[in-house]
Amino acid sequence: MKTKFWAWLTLVLSALQILLILVSWIVSSAIQQSYVHSLLSSEGIRWFMGRFSENLATPVLVWMLLIAIGYGVFRTSGLYQVITDLVHGKRVSYRQRFALTVATVIFILIVLVVLYLVFTPHAVLLSATGTLFPSSFSSALIPIAAFTVTVISIVFGSLSASFLSLQQVFNGMTEGIRQTLPLWVVYVFAAQLIQSLIYVFA
To answer: What is the pTM of this model?
Structure first.
C-alpha cells in the first residue's frame, strides 16, 4: 500500500480539522445566536481533549482490526492464491485441494450455524421485535465475516503446509495489520474530524 497518497490524505484531514476549529470560532463569535459550537471555547477545548479517546473508539475501529487480521491470514495462508489459480483454470496440488475442501466444509458449517441463529423460531440473533436489521446479527455481521475468513484461512494454511508453526499463524494474523498501517493513521484524523463536525454543528 503506497504511503504517498495516505500521507497527503492525512495532511488534508489535518488542514480541514484546523479550518473547522477556526471557522467554528469565527462563526460563534460573529453570530452570537448561532447554534455553532466553538472548538476554541472553554467548553470546546474540554470536549476536544476529554473525548478524544471516545471519539476514536467506534465500531469502525474494531471492524478495521478484525478485517485486517482476516485479510492478513487470508493472504499469507495461500488461500487467496489457490482461489485465484482455480478461477484462472490453473492446477493446484492434491494437498491444496484437500485443504480447500476441508476449509469449504468448515465455511458451510459456520454459515449453517449462523443461519440457525438467525432464521429459526425465536432466533437469538434477532432483535427483541424479531427484525433482522437492526439486531444482534446486523451488529455482528462484519465480525462474523472476519472470524469466518480467519478460521478457514488458518485451517487451509495448516493443512496445506503454508503454516508450519503457531508462530507462522500468528505472523499471518498480524500481516494484515502491518499492510494496512496507513489506514489506521488516516482513521485517527478522519474520526476526530467527523466527531468535531458533529460537535460544532449539532
So the answer is: 0.90
